[in-house]
């Protein structure tokens, strides 16, 4: 079936519909990774978004349950230049189109993704619809009306995304380990908990809105703040709890968790023009000068305007100089904008989990010994 993407600036991109047949609406963003489409599909950080893949062929390895980052996808649409319908991999359990249809996600393939990405880079992230071809005229006609009517045609996106994607209950991910880490789930990728378990931690996952007292009752040795979707300032009600946790336990934040730590200690965040989404973003450690290639997925960044003295910038993006890591000057609290747990990779920054474990062991009066 013929379909198209209609952007709020009036641009239309044609293709073929795959997956679910209903209409899709969301913020249109692009991802530059060559691999990892299955992890991208199931990353809760994409809640409410239509994801455009810049790599031309997607789906050639099929999909399998083992590599999911969440039990279900939260994105609203998926766009490719070409979608493989004959995957070849020994673990493949189905095609990309089959998976999208089963999960109720609208896909659009055969799109000139190069021109689409150029449009987003020029205008910034835009809201848009994926619709069947025969629905296009209605949208385009509506866009010629007054500004108020156009605004109702492309309404603001929901701002409660963290509370929609977080776990509804407290659960134990890993029962055994020398150190107990409580993971606050703002839309956590599964590999964060797996990575903590991999360094010998017992992991308990809790909802984003869990109170300090409930977390304290779990007797953690350290706190992990996960990735997640949306504007970090929508989580202002969670900041008092994060401050108390950081004053009590070693704390490590990733992506949205990084932004919330920044807000909790007086920094600001701001929306980027089109964000960082890909698996090849170079990040430099200001302490060592080492550069890591990193996986990233965020549309907001920590601003350095009125940057608080309590925080120190530890990492920067080599491409645009934006803040990629911070640490508290006095507390055992640090965070990074990128994903050290990234699956399928790169994994150059995985050592940050060991740095977190060092802080936990120091608090417990223990030493961490591991092979270099």
Give an overview in words.
Helix content is 24%, strand content 32%. The protein has eleven helices and 19 strands. It has helices spanning 37-41, 96-103, 113-123, 136-142, 147-153, 161-165, 190-198, 212-217, 239-246, 256-264, 351-363, and strands at 2-7, 12-19, 24-31, 49-53, 57-58, 77-79, 82-83, 106-109, 126-132, 171-174, 179-185, 201-207, 222-225, 251-254, 268-285, 291-303, 311-317, 323-328, 333-336. A ten-stranded mixed sheet has the order 10-12-11-13-14-19-18-17-15-16, with helices on both faces. Strand 18 (323-328) and strand 19 (333-336) form a beta hairpin. It is globular and about 65 Å long. The model has no long low-confidence stretch (mean pLDDT 94).
Share of helix among residues? 10-25%
Calculate the terminal CA-CA distance, rounded to whole Å: 55 Å
Secondary-structure element order, as H and E?
EEEHEEEEHEHEHHHEEHEHEHEHEEEEEH
- The radius of gyration computed from the alpha-carbon positions, rounded to a whole number of angstroms, is 21 Å
Number of DSSP strand runs: 19
* Overall morphology: globular
Major sheet characteristics: 10 strands, mixed
Number of helices: 11
Compute the average pLDDT: 94
Work out the oligomeric state of the chains in this entry: single chain
**Helix/strand/pairing category:** alpha/beta
Strand order of the largest sheet: 10-12-11-13-14-19-18-17-15-16
What is the strand content?
A: 25-35%
